[in-house]
Amino acid sequence: MMFITGDVCPLRGIYRYSGHPDNSKGCHSKWFERDIVLEIKQKFPRVGACIKPAQWVFVRPP
Ligand SMILES: [Zn+2]
After folding, report:
1. How many Å lie between the centroid of ligand 1 and the Cα of residue 27?
2. What distance in Å separates the CA atoms of residue 2 and residue 21, rounded to the nearest whole number?
3. Could you read off the pLDDT of 35-61 as tens digits, one per residue?
4. How many structural domains does the chain have?
5. 58: closest CA among 43, 42, 38?
6. Cα-to-centroid distance, 47 and ligand 1 (Å)
């Protein structure tokens, strides 16, 4: 399952940043490795301070 910034979360869980839709790299100051916990109906965030949409993948239930 892959989601993009602004998508509505369908399943409570832990998600991990997995790059940008345009595959750009090096646009934020450091690689973002911290997983996030998202609740149902929350929107997927951006990654850190980066203004580009971010991709998120489901890791596991919280
Ligand atoms: Zn970025």
Report:
1. 4
2. 11
3. 999 999 999 999 988 999 999 999 999
4. 1
5. 38
6. 7
